[in-house]
């Protein structure tokens, strides 16, 4: 007999994140945003959360907003990632962040800023 167990808060956040990933791959972007936002809301309340894990969730939200050409909301989440990276430097995550934000600025036709971010990603 299988006993029903409840998920802890972190597990719920992870499940919402994975559901967001599924919806993103299905190109159901508004549903993806909803799931990612639920994940982020939970993660923001967990005091012991790994901040890079939270930053990754912000990153997926930014990417989905880019998918629907909502660049202003994408920038909101990229700014949140940047604040986390200022306190928790991680070279691999920084490279990914700079690359993704550089693509956003390319979409906005801000080529000097896009170039600067891409160069930072290489270093």
What report would you give on this structure?
The protein has 123 residues and is an all-alpha fold. Helix content is 79%, strand content 0%. Helix 2 (29-45) runs antiparallel to helix 3 and helix 3 packs antiparallel against helix 4. The longest helix has 17 residues, at 9-25.
Keywords:
123 residues, mainly alpha, Serine Threonine Protein Phosphatase 5, Tetratricopeptide repeat, 79% helix, 0% strand, disordered N terminus
Task: Give the gist of this structure.
79% of the residues lie in helices and 0% in strands.
Write the layout of secondary structure elements.
Elements lengths: L8 H17 L3 H17 L5 H17 L3 H17 L3 H17 L3 H12 L1
Pfam family, one: TPR_12
Protein name: Tetratricopeptide repeat protein
Keywords: Repeat, TPR repeat
Roughly how much helix do the residues carry, as a percent range?
over 70%
Q: What does the largest sheet look like?
A: none
Report the uncertain regions: 1-5
The strand count comes to 0
């Amino acid at each position: 007999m299988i006993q029903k167990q409840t998920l802890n808060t972190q597990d719920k956040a992870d499940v919402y994140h994975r559901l967001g990933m599924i919806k993103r791959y299905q190109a159901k972007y508004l549903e993806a945003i909803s799931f990612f936002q639920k994940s982020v809301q939970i993660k923001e309340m967990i005091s012991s959360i790994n901040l890079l894990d939270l930053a990754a969730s912000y990153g997926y939200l930014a990417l989905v907003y880019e998918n629907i050409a909502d660049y202003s909301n994408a920038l909101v989440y990229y700014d949140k990632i940047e604040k986390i990276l200022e306190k928790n430097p991680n070279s691999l995550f920084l490279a990914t962040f700079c690359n993704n934000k550089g693509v956003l600025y390319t979409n906005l036709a801000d080529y000097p800023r896009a170039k600067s971010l891409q160069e930072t990603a290489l270093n």
